[in-house]
Write a structure and sequence with these properties.
141 residues, OB fold (Dihydrolipoamide Acetyltransferase, E2P), alpha+beta, elongated, five-stranded antiparallel β-sheet
Length: 141
C-alpha cells in the first residue's frame, strides 16, 4: 500500500477549503456593507459545515486511516455518475455499501456476483481507493 493520498480526497479538501473562504468573504462583505444581521447570519451558515468537512478530510489524510474490507459481492448497481457495491464482509451478517465514481469501471467489469473481493477505503470519508478480487479464503479451499 502506498502512502500517496487519493486524488478525490485531495480534490474534496481543496474544494471545501475554497468554498469556506468564499463563504467567509461573503460574511465579511455583508458585515462591512451594513446589511441586516439576518443576511449576515445566513451567509455564515455554510462556514461551520465546511469547516467540519475540512477537519474530517484532514484527519483521514494525516492519520492515514485506510481500511481493507474483504467479503462476498452481493450486489453491483450502476448509480448516477458511478457505481454502488454491496458486500457481506467475512464473518458478518451485515451488508456494507460502497459508492464509487466512474474511474473504477475497469476494475468492476471483471467482478461477478458472489466473487470474493477486497475494498480499500478511507475510514472517515469512505472514499474508495481500490477494488479488486481477493484471494480465496482458507475455508473455500
Amino acid at each position: 500500500m502506498t502512502n500517496k493520498p487519493h486524488k478525490s480526497l485531495i480534490w474534496l479538501l481543496s474544494y471545501t477549503s475554497a468554498a469556506m473562504l468564499i463563504a467567509t468573504g461573503m460574511w465579511i462583505v455583508n458585515l462591512l456593507a451594513d446589511r441586516p444581521a439576518w443576511l449576515g447570519f445566513i451567509s455564515f451558515l455554510p462556514v461551520p459545515v465546511l469547516l467540519a468537512l475540512v477537519v474530517v478530510v484532514c484527519m483521514d489524510l494525516i492519520g492515514d486511516n485506510r481500511v481493507v474490507v474483504g467479503g462476498v459481492l452481493i450486489e453491483r448497481k450502476d448509480a448516477v455518475n458511478g457505481y454502488r457495491l454491496r458486500l457481506r464482509p467475512d464473518g458478518s451478517e451485515l451488508l456494507r455499501t460502497f459508492r464509487m465514481n466512474l474511474s473504477f469501471t475497469n476494475a468492476l467489469s471483471a467482478l461477478q456476483l458472489d466473487d470474493r473481493i477486497e475494498v480499500r477505503y478511507y475510514k472517515l470519508t469512505r472514499v474508495v481507493i481500490a477494488v479488486h478480487k481477493a484471494p480465496p479464503s482458507p475455508s473455500d479451499v
